[in-house]
Amino acid sequence: MKEARSSNLFKGVRLDSTGEEVSILQFADDAIFVGEWTMDNAMNLMRILKSRILKCFELCSGLRINLSKSSLMGVSVPKEEVQKVARWLNCKEGSIPFTYLGLPVGDNMAKASAWQPIIDKFKSRLSLWKAKHLSAGGRLCLIKSVLGGLGNYFFSLYKAPNKVLSSLESIRRRFFWGEVNQSRKINWVAWNKALRDKKSGGLGIGSLKALNLAMLSKWHWREKVEPNAKWKHVISAISESINGSRIGVWKSIQRIGRELEAWGINLQNLIIPNEDNRGWSWQLDDNGEFSVRSLRKFIDCLILPSADSETIWVKGVTSKANVHLWRVMNNRLPTMDNLIKRGVLVNSDGCKFCISNQESADHVFAACSTTKTVSAYLSNWVNWWPTSARSISDLWESIDSGSSGSLDRMIRRTIGAAFFWVLWNQRNNKTFSGAVKKEREIAEDIKFLAYDWIRGRVKAGLPVGGNMNRASNWKPLIDKFKSKLSTWKAKTLSIGGRLCLCKSVLGSLGIYLFSLYKAHMKVINILESHRCRFFWGGTDNQKKICWMAWENVIRDKSCGGLGIGSLCSLNMALLAKWRWRERTETDAIWLKVVQHCNLETDNHNRRIKGVWDRIYAVEKELRDLGINLDTLMHLEDDGSRWVWELEANQTFTVRSLRKMIDVISLPLSNQDTEWSKWIPSKVNIFLWRVLNKRLATRDNLQKRGVTITTDLCPLCMSTSENMDHVMVSCSTTKIASAILSNWINWWPVNEINIEDWWRKVQRSGADKTQKQVSWVIGAAFLWSIWEQRNRKAFNGEFKNEQAICRDVQFLSFDWIRSRAKGYNLHPGYKFLPSDSDLIVHYLKPKIATGTHPPCRLHEVYLYDHHPQQLSETYRAASENKWYFLTPRVRIYPKGSRPKRSTKEFGRWKQTQKCTPVYDDVNTQMVVGKRASLAFHDDKDHKTEWLIHETPTPSTVTTIVPNGTPPQQWLTQNAFTSPYSAVVILHDALHLFFLQPPALRRPTLPAGGGYLRSSNPLLRALGSDTNCWN
């Protein structure tokens, strides 16, 4: 647009006073073009939208301008003319006002009707079913968060009418008090009091009026700190053109300052220059940056009524209990005296507990005989609990006044909140359902509820004073394992995800307990059984076959396992850490305390008590395994520091000792686990199971007592199924292997068992990267074969061997390209190469050096063959692209005209003028020209074959069936229909590319993506032409 404007191809709207011109407004993928109403402007705009640069952008990004969804609008232009131009542009006719990015443009926002979308959105989000089913805490949370998205967007640009604000506040108020349909409920606290800040006695909801004013005031701040912004210049230019007064929405924004001044808020005094006069500072925030929150809070403090005391809000207590506590402190519960004051007819005004006195909040929570008995039980639990309070205020003052710190205060307030919550719930249960609990039971309910709330806030988490030799004291850890390794995760995660979770599940409480206490073997066995069942996808109610013994699974990868590690070795290694710290931290306070409290020395014999007895006992257990900590930890020769022998940096790590314990205590394997970072974890585990012959083949199922209808291989249905047969010997597998051997000539096709087959895959490749690529292709082959086996066995779906090979190629390509960061992909690999790619990257190197980037090339003389013969002769089932090199022949030795006739078949005749071929990188450079030719048979009849040829300096030719619709042609059978072909001609050589329509993959950005990426496939695929064919 800048180039079009500078070239006078497109004229925007010019602001006369400043010379500013507006031509396009953009946000993400939405754009508005603004310009003078002329036919030339419209025609030039269409040229811009259809330009080659924009087409390149569309191909690379996948985004395309949809004119049928676009609209054309005219300002002060006759409607007939707008319709005429809209039809010419093939777009819709728009009108003003319109909506852009969710905002109405051109509408009168001073009218309440323009705000109907906001009101409707409030009603939909604060719906009646939510009011009926959510608790008071849930409704409070929803009210605070409901103004997201469109609401804030409107409030940040438009001044809302008072009628709209009243409607929105009414919706929020009715929702908070739980009003459903047309039923009215008592609003126990005035809404203005609920809106105010918690420090002022409210719930911190905040008024919508203050939010609207604060968001509009933001523009006054931005006007100061962004003096050179484009938006400011445009607004100033429009304002100056109308006698300096702002119009439209900006007029209401300008008036915000006057409205705030009526409440004593002067924005000019809140936005002041910095000390160095290089910027501006906002006085309501310590960091000096404007925030809507600070101004909104300031406005609410002025316009909403204030209370004498703050709202008591206890962290860790549920929101509904905090709202209940707020109502208790304000005497706004539906006690009998409060209901009578509000005109509600009641059968009796007596207390539901004692029946003898009139019910009030002070009586229920302080003076009632039932409450006093409950308080007596609580005072035996915590001796500070007041038992003689006569009112709620006395009771809370006694609870709050004796705290000795922030933690003690939090605990006291939590128990107080639990007291009010449980007692009121018991009152309601007795009133409405007749349920009666004894005072001791009520006190126990308060204790348990307070404990649950406090436990969520206190992070200590370690049992103190308990006997950790008992398995029952490890129940919290067992429960945590069950919650983290839950049933839904076992059902939805892949086996790779379950492996990752098994390795990481011992976070927080698990490692914390293991680092201080020696776990009972019963506990270790329970935890390991949970991990084993979860890893194999089983649940508490559904058992699954564990295909490998868990001891073989958890051992290290160097020992044939998956490297999970045993919990027993983790526990021992964590406890052994204290022996290291004891040596390296000789002056630490903790060591002196432990020695004083738990260590007694008598004639050099140490007697240890408590938990440290078990910690020191670990050293003996390790010695029984053949691990001597005194040998692994020793002083350097100069005595300056301690050395740990298992790490190169000579510092103790739990990982190194745990690995050593696992190697000694777990059974060993004859081979290492094959594991590659280039493929997903689930495929690595699959390969591990294949090499250990632990897949669910039918012979393995029969060995484990599973009843099956047949033992035949699902792929060939002729031989009993076992691992070697499915992966190597099956006829389907052998055909797929033969096809792949045409792609890579080292592919094993004659092996009879999986071990020999995998050994040959591992040996291929000249260097480390080629070996890794071979490894990935082999894994992709096994994965694809097993997937096809399962699809046919369970769903009856069938894929031919060609489709399986294509899956192997594309799957291996996807895995390799994400890991081969330092290798370059050959131009056109896995894509239909562009004309420029074929000329620059294949043909020219061949002419200049006699070589070209490795790919599938056949040297064929083009004019000795009919196009149909080429497609049939060189068709490869596993490939979807073919390239041919052919010499070029002139008609006359000294002439420039190429030979067009073919041997016995006919000739090619030109049907279209030449067009230039541009380089993909330097789009201004022409690398060749292109002309269209049709193939005529020996009787000079024009056939369905069409080519595109570029004469000099190089030629690109494309053969397609003449006159056939692309979509119809693309769906024809690949074996009987004509094929597309690309021929690159040069003075010395032709490069001929053939691709069958039926095997063509979905269209990808030509020349983009991986074509010039530094990220995709690899040099290894082409470093050895003979090896990689």
TrEMBL record:
It holds the Pfam family NAM. Residues 825-977 form the NAC domain. Residues 1-105 form the Reverse transcriptase domain. The keyword Transcription regulation applies. It comes from the Eukaryota. Keywords: DNA-binding, Nucleus, Transcription, Transcription regulation. PANTHER family: REVERSE TRANSCRIPTASE ZINC-BINDING DOMAIN-CONTAINING PROTEIN-RELATED-RELATED, RNA-DIRECTED DNA POLYMERASE. It comes from Centaurea solstitialis. This is NAC domain-containing protein. InterPro entries: NAC-dom (IPR003441), NAC_dom_sf (IPR036093), RT_dom (IPR000477), RVT-Znf (IPR026960). GO terms for molecular function: DNA binding. One of its GO terms (biological process) is regulation of DNA-templated transcription.
